[in-house]
Amino acid sequence: MGMDKYNVFAAALVEKAEYFAPGHRACQGCAEALAVRLVMKALGRDTIVAMSTGCMEIVSSPLPTTSWNVPWIHVAFENSSAVISGCAVGMKALMRKGRVEKRDINFVAMGGDGATADIGMGQLSGMMERGHKAIYVCYDNEAYMNTGIQRSSSTPWGASTTTSPAGSESIGQNTNKKNMPQIAVAHDIPYVATACSSYPFDLMEKVKKATTINGASYIHVLSVCPTGWRIPFDESIKYGRLAVNSGVFPLYEVVNGKYRMTHKPEKFLPITAYMKGQGRFRHLKDTDIERIQQKVLDDYNKILKRCEE
Amino acid sequence: MATVRKGIEVSIALAEAVGQANVDVIAAYPITPQTHIVEHLAEMVADGHLDAEFVPVESEHSAMSVCCGSSAVGARTFTSTSSQGLALMAEIFYIASSLRLPIVMALANRSLSGPLSIWNDHTDTMMVRDSGWVQVFVENGQEAYDHMFWAFRVAEHPDVLYPTAVNLDGFILTHMIEPIIFEDNETIKKYLPDLKMKNVLHPDNPVSMGCFAMPEIYTETQMAREQGLVKSYPQAVKAWDEWYELTGRRYHPIETYRADDAEYCVVTMGSYGEAAMEVVDMLREKGEKVGVVKIRLWRPFPFEDFYKAIEGKKHLIVLDRAISFGGPGGPVATEIRSALYNRKNAPAIVNYVLGLAGRDVTPGDFIKILHEGKEKALKGDTAGYTLYGVRE
Question: Whole-model pTM above 0.95?
Answer without folding.
Answer: yes
